[in-house]
Amino acid sequence: MEEKFKEEVLRGILALYEGKRKELIPILQETQGLFGYLPKEAIRLIARFLNITEGEVYSVASFYKYFRLMPLGRNMVTVCRGTACHIKGASRVFDEISKALGLKEGETSSDLEYTLETVACIGCCSLAPCVKTNYKVHGEMTREKARELFLTSN
Amino acid sequence: MSHECNALVCQGTGCKSGGAEEVLSSLQKEIERLNLGKRFRVKQTGCHGFCQRGPLIVIEPEGIFYSKVSPDDVSEIVQSLLSEGKPIERLFYRDPVTNQPLPHYRDIPFYNKQQRLLLRNCGNIDPEEIDDYVSAGGYQALPKALFKMTPEQIIDEVKRSGLRGLGGAGFSAGRKWEECYRAPVQEKYVICNGDEGDPGAFQDRSVMEGTPHSILEGMSIAAYAVGAQHGYIYVRAEYPLAVKRLRRAISQAKEKGFLGKDIMGSGFDFVIELFQGAGAFVSGEATALVAAIEGRRGEPRIKPPHLAESGLWGIPTLLNNIKTFSCIPLIIERGAEWFSSIGTEKSKGTAVFALTGKVVNTGLIEVPMGITLREIIYGIGGGIPDGKAFKAVQTGGPSGGCLPASLLDMPVDFDSLKAAGSIMGSGGLVVMDQETCMVDVARYFLDFTQRESCGQCVPCRLGTRQMFDILDEITKGQGKAEDIDLLLEVSQAVSTISLCALGKTAPNPVLTTIRYFRDEYEAHIHEKQCPAGVCQMIVS
Fold first, then answer.
1. Chain B residue closest to A58 (CA)?
2. B208 within 8 A of B248, measured Cβ to Cβ
3. Of B89, B158, B280, B457, which residue is least crowded by CB atoms under 10 Å?
């Protein structure tokens, strides 16, 4: 469960590092693991800890898709748009889920319950098309299965 | 203590998504409940390869293969293991054409037409137990290298084996090692590239999850050969199970003295750290990967200098793919002559493919280089489902190309694929049928590459976007007569002037689809028709 940003919690993470530049990405990963995204205050603190500018931290955080600068929904719904998934109809599955949740790609619901995203490949190509809800992978998805999945969770 | 039989339950990511964890825990509980633990061993394994038929169980020593197993089947399975028990027919794999049951693993064409070498442990050992890897013959090559061979002899063996890098480009592994070895410095790095970013590929993931120690052993031998003391394995963040298994493997190897200081009493020190990627396809490029480990934006830089000269923090670095390192223990153990007897003249050894898409048997396969596309797609893959016609097979991910039916008898090796306009790549093989639109496929790949372009150089940043926009319009019925020539012109610029291989190879899907499926482009442009019935043509 993610926590609200608290300075002392972040300082607890930083205490395990040495303050070297190479630690930036692992620190950002741990910070996001704890808070669910990278709060502004965290970035400020991390920059100071590594003795680099906030701009440099943003430059790295904004390059990698994994890092979020805004909070996410409690439930991550990820539709795979890998090659195998694509030719097996991933875009139709996506449309169905988008309709069910009322969200476009990259959007988070206003009640912070759901975030809908796509990803280039989750590596389960044999079971295409795939959808991931939080850590669970659902394979061989169809429009009907997508409708069922989101009707029961709504 | 040896058991009467072992039940090997696949716990690869694919099977797990189908409920394999519940099957494993139910089986373990049932064996415990009936107090049969001394007679029967339940073992979790890595990917058996036949992902579509999962959850899978193999019963050794007979080699009985059960597919699509559910927790409800468990008590029957256990009963069948007892002396009066018979194997369960309804869980057998059946030939999709004749419906004949094939109870034994070795009789199933999907398996018996493969040559599983670097995947030899996947599906047989528990990847979380180092003792399983050792019992299967692991950590024999490392002491041979450390105590019976010199670095020069090891590099010579790898060169003579003919092993070419299995990450995509196919550069001679031995020559790469030699370049790094020659760098006249004391400090060096070895990096293993586990940033398998090609959509449609999961070979590296399966090796990391299924046989992590073969990677560690291969890296250690390489480090000893080139003179490195520190190694990194770069794993995609999207592969949490691979991260977990590698972490555990590193810690177990350290405990047993196969990693760390004074390895096996040889005086050689080598440590391996894990680095998790943060989601960037381009960071799989060698120089970009190095930038990511350094804590910077994962953008490529101009080469030369190559990594062997200036790598991580400017220090000479050897970088190879997961599969390449996994081959090393075998080559050292069995020798270059043995390895080079497999494959073709210029492409030695085997290739691992993720066979997916419109094919009956999807999964992970390993075949000798030189096998034909037809033998893979029809012999192992079982052909195209639902009686549809084969149209194309895509190899090499977004850097590769689509090959038509006329090339089905082409041997699969580095140079033949290149001559046909594609590449070997990391090993994705996506089969397409008559209902796939080849213009849509080109558009799909350009959508991917222009999203993933790091944006540093103009030809890639703007060129991929241009190609995508033109393809997008064509698929919407808004293509113009000059579009094909324009695509070819832009492709020429992008492939020649881009800074790195992402840009240089981005046009390949467009070039091959125009080369082999030009009629589809023309139908979209001139007749505003999509022959495959995929594109929604909005004709104004």
1. B297
2. no
3. B89
